[in-house]
Amino acid sequence: GGVSNWRAAGAVKLPPYSLHLGHEGCTQPPVSHLPPLEVFLVKFMMAPGGGQPVIITGALESWPALTRWQDLQYLARVAGHRTVPIEVGPHYLDQEWGQQLMTLSDFIAKHVAQKEGQEMPKDAKRRGYLAQHPLFDQVPALAADVQTPEYCALSEDEEGGGLQAVNAWFGPAATVTPLHTDPHHNLLAQVVGRKYVRLYAPSHTDSLYPFQEGLTTNTSQVDLDAPDHERFPLSSKLPHVDCLLEPGQMLFIPKGWWHYVKSLSVSFSVSFWWK
Q1: 108 with 129: CB under 8 angstroms?
Q2: Which of 49, 73, 77, 171 has CA atoms 20 to 30 A from the CA of 200?
Q3: Sheet with 163-171, edge to edge strand ranges
Q4: CA neighbor of 199 nearest in space, from 6, 25, 8, 9
Q5: Computed from CA positions of residues 56, 61, 63, 67, in that sequence, does the dihedral angle turn out positive or negative?
Q6: What share of the chain is helix, strand, coil (3-state, %, to 5)?
Q7: Among 149, 150, 197, residue whose Cα is nearest residue 169
Q8: Are 154 and 35 spatial neighbours (Cβ–Cβ below 8 Å)?
């Protein structure tokens, strides 16, 4: 039921009716333990309707990151001196949002470490997030802690598109990435902490009211945390896929699928984009 799911999310408030399976078309993705490449390609990447999201288990077991990154002091020791761009504010659509450069050590001290075991910060305007950053190009020692999943070698292109980007997503509880879509396949590997993810199939694009101009045409105008069904009536009862991503799990987000992501705790994820 919804209450136990809410408790599982701790103090972080999820969008209305999150994880209410069966309610207004809410389903969970299948879970597959290390599917062979051919199965992944046919059953998930090439599934009818633009692919099938799936949670893959077992793929991170050989990653040193899975144990090492639980220790914030390790991250500070290996990468603390590097300067990184930190997103500050509720999320990138918010008027209060901005970016600040700081060292990773400063980011951990100001935005991550102090929050552990304490009350959630009430002021989302000051929340910091290291989001979509190529940290592994910057810090070879951290790159050595992860491995590119072999699924990223699969391509729908005859030429073979290959890996496009490997990005870090690191921050406190309650970071939000608004509902958006990407032009690449994505494997989102959850290393530290937990994240809630909601997904909508590409066929629902028009009902999610993408911004019509500017830099955010890949982003929905629908705020899932406070949905306005009068302004966006088609968005209210759309079938969607909900999941809680646990450490050691990897979520396949097929190209073009809409996704919203919220951290439930201090969290470190790695995304692999490929064509």
Answers
A1: no
A2: 171
A3: 31-33, 54-57, 249-253, 185-192, 267-274, 163-171, 128-133, 83-88, 98-103
A4: 25
A5: positive
A6: 25, 30, 45
A7: 197
A8: no
142 token code pair: 């951290």
Per-residue pLDDT of the chain (275 residues; tens, 9 = 90+): 343 444 445 689 999 989 998 888 899 999 999 999 999 999 999 999 999 999 999 999 999 999 999 999 999 999 999 999 999 987 888 888 899 999 999 999 999 986 445 554 556 778 999 999 999 999 999 999 999 999 999 987 766 679 999 999 999 999 999 999 999 999 999 999 999 999 999 999 999 999 998 888 899 999 999 999 999 999 988 999 999 999 999 999 999 999 999 999 999 999 999 99
Fill in the amino acid letter for 49. Answer: G
CA distance 61 to 57: 9
The label of the residue with tokens 């009902």 reads 207
Model confidence, pTM: 0.92
Residue type, 151: Y
